[in-house]
Amino acid sequence: MLTIQAKLGFDSKEDKQEVLDLMRRWSSCMRFAYNRLLESKGRNELKRELQGIFNLNSRYVDDAIIKAKSVLESCKERCENPSRVIFGSRSLFEKLKKRHINGNAYKKLKKEWQERRKGNLYSRGDKSKKGNLNTRIKIDENGAVLRINVSERKYAYARIQAGCKKGKSREELLEAISTCGEAYSVELKLKNGKVYAYFTIEENFPEVTVTKENGVIGIDVNAYPDHIAWSETDENGNLVSYSKILMPELASGSSDKREYYRWQHAHEVVRLAEEKEKAIAIERLDIRDKGKRGDFSGRKSRRIRHSFSYRSLLEKIKVLAKRKGIQVIEVNPAYTSMIGMLKYVPQYMISKDVAAAYVIARRGLRIKERIPDNYMKLLENLDVDSLEDLKDYVSKAIKNRRLKKKQLKEIDYAIKVLQSLGSEPGEALIPLDGTSISAYSESYKLWRVLKVAVVTPLSPGKVLRDISVLKGVLHSGQVGRPG
């Protein structure tokens, strides 16, 4: 979807007042429809009722019902109580309830909340009507004008002010939208007494011509430090080249500034894929269950959702790649960093982020990661008693140095995995049902056990900084134990 934002300027106060009144009635209609949907009323029944109550035509009423349904569905997806929805922003409503805010600050806050609550209008496009019947873009000698249906056979007109920085390009886009005959949707919002319009039209992307047949570029986006790590592979999954794209601008600044630089860095990634004629592999994102308790309470989850806009950057890469006909492959991000650190950092002496991008690229080619032979030998000789000894050592280190307890949880998990595979205390790991241990080599469980067996003895209780020591472990299959 392509969205263009513009401010509306009215030649007469009467036109603006009529549009504001229309937005107020439509917003009330949408809230009323939402409450009736909670009572399980049907769409057809609602349409007849709402048209008479709010004096809106059937198209406006239908759009209000659609918006109300989308709010209801979104609320259910987030597992929230639909009856507790507050239109106009819950955060503003909670601030208004605080008694210490008064005077001009209270008036300003109340005005903002009322604008968000009452200053909305949404009008869907219709291809059979060559664009949009209720809110139609018109082009005259002075530029683009929005014709708004305020009542039966009565229209208000507003000049579309595209802005001074990119006005020409926006006006050209608006002219193209108005003459192409395709359906476009228009959404009006009231902000600080001014009306803003958002024009949305569905893009027709070209046919995909750059596919993974030539290889893949894997992308690993890191919230801290702010950078994109990328790795290029050939069609067989062999590493060809790699590097990083630094993004210090995303660490601070206004939202508009960060949005601008996200587009710039997304263009860099797509240009890279276009030059090398290779598909792009990115992580399939789902951060709904992130955080310590699955409620977004963790620092990493908050950073991803608010400061870094992790999802926004990858969505921009997807859109730009589609415009260039470049295939975008979304892969499961589970354990990419862990596999990259244990397997490819020692082999190629690259950073953990680049190694994770390499794993993502290989997953884009549907290549499964197997545990190297020397690591498998180490796992075959691993028993529960050795992990219990390691657990005692880490416990003492945590007590003496006040380290975090994350390593203890990983060791407990590794012990449970070994026991589930048939290992008893004091015995070597024996696969169940006579199955070769190599059958489990593609299981994420064994990668986690391997991390405990290899990384924890080298760096108990903290992050392993010198990854080069893993090279000797990978080639010898042996690791030292803490004394």
What features would you describe in this structure?
The protein is elongated and about 80 Å long. β9 and β10 form a beta hairpin. Strands 2-6-7-1-5-4-3 form a seven-stranded antiparallel β-sheet. A five-stranded mixed β-sheet has the order 10-9-8-11-12. The chain is of the alpha+beta class. α10 packs across α16. The chain folds into three domains: 200 residues, no CATH class; 153 residues, YqgF/RNase H-like domain (Nucleotidyltransferase, domain 5); 104 residues. It contains 16 helices and twelve strands. About 7% of the residues have low confidence.
Order of helices and strands: EHHHHHEEEEHEEEEEHEHHEHHHHHHH
Strands ordered across the widest β-sheet: 2-6-7-1-5-4-3
- Multimeric state of these chains? single chain
* Structure classification: alpha+beta
Overall number of strands: 12
Strand composition percent: 15-25%
Proportion in helices: 40-55%
Number of helices: 16
Low-confidence stretches: 164-168, 287-296, 423-442
Mean pLDDT across the residues is 78
Radius of gyration: 29 Å
Shape: elongated
User: How many structural units, i.e. domains?
Assistant: 3
Main beta sheet strand tally, sense and closure? 7 strands, antiparallel
First and last CA, distance:
60 Å
